[in-house]
Amino acid sequence: MDHLVIGPGGVVLVDSKRWHRNSSIRGHGGRLWIGRRPADSLVQATVFEAARVGEVLRAAGWKVPVMPVVAVHGAKLPRWGALTVSGVTMLRADRLCGWIRRHPPQLSSEQVASISTAAERVFPPYSAVE
């Protein structure tokens, strides 16, 4: 998990990935493809991470869905700029904020603050060891 975004639209787990700008990302046959290679492990790992975040937040008293997203840097996505495979949305990183803002409000500002506090306890920010 690279980022956990908690706002009025819900909880979003963001995994950032960078591929070469000549790589193409597409969904076909219920699978994610990066170039000519299937990327099932990326989808499975992102689904697993989102489920795990949901379980941990549930244990902290918050039963909220966690939306898994991969923010794509570099690679080409379909013309419309996003695709969803097995519940994981793949979109260009520069479209992530707009995508999050377009979700209708589900949480009050008090709920956002409480969930954020709980998340900070169980998912402390990463800090590099020097």
Please give a structural write-up.
- This protein is an alpha/beta fold and 130 residues long.
- It has one domain (3-122).
- 31% of the residues lie in helices and 32% in strands.
- The chain contains three helices and eight strands.
- The chain has helices spanning 40-59, 96-101, 109-122; strands at 3-7, 10-18, 25-28, 31-34, 37-38, 66-73, 82-85, 88-92.
- Strands 1-2-6-8-7 form a five-stranded mixed sheet. A three-stranded antiparallel sheet has the order 3-4-5, covered by helices on one side.
- A hairpin with a 2-residue loop joins strand 3 (25-28) and strand 4 (31-34).
- InterPro entries: NERD.
- Pfam families: NERD.
- This is NERD domain-containing protein.
- Residues 2-72 form the NERD domain.
- It comes from Nonomuraea thailandensis.
Overall geometry comes to elongated
| Helical coverage, percent range | 25-40%
Alpha carbon gyration radius = 15 Å
Characterize the biggest β-sheet: 5 strands, mixed
The overall pLDDT, averaged over residues, is: 92
Helix and strand composition category:
alpha/beta
Give the low-confidence spans. none
The ordered string of helix (H) and strand (E) elements is EEEEEHEEEHH
Domain NERD: 2-72
Organism: Nonomuraea thailandensis
Protein name: NERD domain-containing protein
InterPro entries: NERD
